[in-house]
Amino acid sequence: MANREKNKKTLLELVKLPENSCCADCGAADPDWASCTLGIFVCLNCSGTHRNLPTVSRIKSIRLDFWDDELVQFMKANGNRPAKNFYEKFVPVFYYQPHTDDCEVLREQWIRAKYERMEFTEKNTERPFTAGVYEGMLWKKGKDNGQFLERKFVLSVCDFTLKYYKEDESKGPKATISVKDLNATFQPEKIGHAHGLQITYCVDDHTRNLFVYNKNGQEIVNWFNAIRAIRHIYLKTAFPTASDRDLIPWTTRNYLKEGYMEKTGPLQREPFKKRWFILDSLDRKLLYFKTQLDAIELGVVFIGSENHGYSVRECVPKGTRGNKWKCGVIVETPDRQFVFMCEQERDQREWVEVLKTVISKPMMPQDYTTEANIRRRR
């Protein structure tokens, strides 16, 4: 007969081991759940996905559920490290491995890819997102009425482009986008769909957005990793001496912060207008749009380093016109002063904090080119 307290104590000792102290799937600290069929420890969020894989994974609480002696011995014989070595042995270097704060579809498909489809247990397995061409249908937000319409997209390695087509493909692509500045980030809340993906690119130094989704979770994550794959190939071609460690952060990236602030003009006498801001920390750009689902940016502020005359601070501006919000942020650049207003003090503190993070980092050689291009636009 199993000793309930003894087995519970054993499990709690196992989960404290360094190799088991974080979720096997998303890295969250102090997991309280375990898959007694896979021999891994997972967090509450990831345990939910495992419950949807009954033929693969059986989930139990390490604190509340009853454990047989045989299951405890199985957990002792396995654990997160051996599982990682087996199920993640051949994960492509560009493949995105989700973290605890990533959206549900990324975490779910990562778990399904590992344990249900076993995509990474064999070397050189052909995957749809690693082919030279990846194509399919995505629902894209329309420019005029804001409705999402189904469009064909084609991602091609041979010319490093992403193309999409309207109904009549014989007329050629509606747009041909270079992958040189391509980025993709999941935005389910902003887009209003659990599989919402924001694709960003540059045209004549101006940033543009595409908002898309696919009803199938596996398909949208395949698209995301296909973009990462082609970006990785492009970066390896453009920077042949750079290591994967240096290139991977540039394949795709999440933005450091997004949200509404009010903005005034260069003379600071113009009325304040509400704008949606995005801080791209890698490109050192503070982009602003009329709304959060606008396709084309209205403007951009380059965020340089402290050594080059950039700074940020909280403020309470006086004599401003038209502003409804009172929590100010001032960004000083070598050329001018920018004044932004936040709705709440928490937003103000967060914007100052993330801007200071960018300003504290030294500028890279490519940043000087970005700075010069933005200055030429004014």
Molecular structure report:
Keywords: Cytoplasm, GTPase activation, Metal-binding, Repeat, Zinc, Zinc-finger. Its main location: cytoplasm. One of its GO terms (cellular component) is cytoplasm. It is found in: Cytoplasm. One of its GO terms (molecular function) is phosphatidylinositol bisphosphate binding. The protein is of the alpha+beta class. The strands form three sheets. A seven-stranded antiparallel beta sheet has the order 7-6-5-4-10-9-8, covered by helices on one side. The protein has a seven-stranded antiparallel beta sheet with strand order 14-13-12-11-17-16-15, with helices on both faces. The chain has ten helices and 17 strands. Helix content is 29%, strand content 25%. Helix 1 packs parallel to helix 3. A hairpin with a 6-residue loop joins strand 4 and strand 5.
